């Protein structure tokens, strides 16, 4: 039996679910040397009517103790030429199978009603998941966007497992509540269903495995860094900083003063692709691109000059306006990929990877296929990549875990010792 982690992916675009399942299972079995300890599936919403049949079809052909997965409007997997493909708006099934020697795989399914309140102790969360914090587990999370209370879950997991990576995405493809698909199988604790329409499925990996993360938010800063002087809930009422002469001013006034100083292209982007970044490290003096958590600008009050954003704000936080376009998004991801081998172990040590990308990326953004996955393979040429396009991406920024939008979040797996 092999003592090295194996991470294998196969992709099928056959319109028949039975044919697609047969194809991906045969492909992974041809390559797998050790036992199958974990399966991860991502399936196109084009098969939505067949979701209840998916896991039974796979388990009939593949013996695996733990399986998780979800549906998505776009699916990522490896074709027969070992090239990562992004299949958008067409049938696709991506199956990843891993042999994980000396790795403990703890699956879990969580309904929102089961979650402890945020005043509970860390032990309430470790009991819910059945994983000790001392094992330093690494989490992969797949959640329903309507019913999972995902932000509360991430806050609770950060509280209970502060040193653990948490990464994943929200199901896409279902336009109404409870129409998506979450897939779950635990051989040790069998349930009477493999398909869930709400909640969160996930795995905790501990032992001889390390999970690295890359979170590409796809934005670049414009203008100076400001400090929130007055805020209420998610509304910035006033800020200070360069251009404010030390006097708190409404953020809309500062934005109006900033826009004329931008180049023409950026002035146009500011009309429809403006975001705001919140610095996540209160103590870091020199902030750079990537040090900010990017949030949507939800609206403005032209009378008071206040700006509403997609997160809570408080006085003292440092913020900066950001722009996003295809060129910026590509550059942001490339810089993060370039930096990875310098900051982390050699890229050749990476055995497999998952990508959780936003529906707003892909061909919608780049106007060409396979962009993010192709860029990833430029730096990790022989690493099997799988994933999906979702309604939100989960990943760490500045030591905390957040739900993102317009992001590509990568999980990279390597052997511990």
Automatic annotation (TrEMBL):
<feature type="domain" description="FIST C-domain">
    <location>
        <begin position="251"/>
        <end position="397"/>
    </location>
</feature>
<dbReference type="Pfam" id="PF10442">
    <property type="entry name" value="FIST_C"/>
</dbReference>
<keyword id="KW-0812">Transmembrane</keyword>
<keyword id="KW-1003">Cell membrane</keyword>
<keyword id="KW-1133">Transmembrane helix</keyword>
<dbReference type="InterPro" id="IPR019494">
    <property type="entry name" value="FIST_C"/>
</dbReference>
<dbReference type="GO" id="GO:0005886">
    <property type="term" value="C:plasma membrane"/>
</dbReference>
<keyword id="KW-0472">Membrane</keyword>
<protein>
    <recommendedName>
        <fullName>FIST C-domain domain-containing protein</fullName>
    </recommendedName>
</protein>
<dbReference type="InterPro" id="IPR016741">
    <property type="entry name" value="UCP018953"/>
</dbReference>
<feature type="domain" description="FIST">
    <location>
        <begin position="35"/>
        <end position="243"/>
    </location>
</feature>
<dbReference type="Pfam" id="PF08495">
    <property type="entry name" value="FIST"/>
</dbReference>
<dbReference type="InterPro" id="IPR013702">
    <property type="entry name" value="FIST_domain_N"/>
</dbReference>
């Amino acid at each position: 039996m092999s003592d090295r982690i194996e991470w294998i992916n196969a992709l099928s675009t056959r319109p028949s679910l039975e044919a697609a399942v047969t194809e991906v299972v045969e492909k992974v079995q041809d390559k797998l040397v050790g036992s199958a300890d974990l399966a991860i599936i991502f399936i196109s919403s084009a098969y939505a009517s067949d979701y209840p049949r998916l896991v039974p079809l796979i388990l009939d052909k593949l013996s695996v103790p733990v399986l998780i997965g979800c549906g998505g409007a776009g699916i990522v997997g490896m074709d027969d030429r070992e090239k990562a493909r992004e299949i958008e708006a067409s049938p696709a099934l991506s199956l990843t199978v891993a042999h994980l020697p000396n790795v403990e795989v703890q699956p879990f399914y969580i309904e929102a009603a089961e979650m402890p309140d945020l005043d509970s102790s860390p032990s309430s969360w470790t009991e819910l998941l059945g994983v000790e914090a001392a094992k330093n587990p690494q989490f992969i999370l797949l959640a329903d966007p309507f019913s999972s209370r995902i932000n509360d879950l991430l806050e609770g997991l950060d509280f209970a497992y502060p040193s653990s990576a948490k990464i994943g995405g929200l199901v896409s493809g279902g336009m109404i509540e409870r129409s998506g698909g979450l897939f779950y199988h635990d051989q040790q604790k069998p349930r009477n269903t493999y398909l869930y329409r709400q909640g969160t499925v996930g795995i905790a990996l501990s032992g001889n495995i390390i999970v690295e993360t890359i979170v590409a938010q796809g934005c670049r800063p414009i203008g100076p860094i400001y400090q929130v002087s007055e805020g209420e809930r998610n509304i910035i009422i006033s800020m200070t900083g360069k251009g404010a002469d030390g006097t708190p001013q409404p953020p809309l006034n500062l934005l109006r003063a900033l826009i004329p100083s931008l180049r023409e292209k950026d002035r146009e982007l500011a009309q429809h692709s403006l975001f705001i970044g919140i610095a996540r490290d209160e103590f870091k003096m020199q902030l750079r691109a990537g040090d900010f958590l990017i949030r949507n600008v939800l609206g403005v009050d032209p009378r008071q000059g206040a700006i509403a954003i997609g997160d809570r704000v408080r006085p003292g936080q440092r913020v900066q306006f950001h722009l996003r376009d295809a060129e910026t998004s590509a550059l942001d991801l490339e810089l993060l990929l370039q930096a990875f081998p310098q900051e982390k172990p050699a890229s050749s040590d990476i055995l497999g990877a998952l990508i959780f990308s936003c529906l707003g990326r892909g061909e919608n953004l780049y106007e060409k296929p396979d962009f993010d996955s192709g860029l990833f393979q430029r730096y990790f040429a022989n690493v099997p990549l799988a994933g999906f396009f979702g309604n939100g991406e989960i990943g760490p920024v500045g030591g905390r875990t957040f739900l993102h939008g317009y992001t590509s979040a990568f999980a990279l797996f390597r052997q511990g010792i």
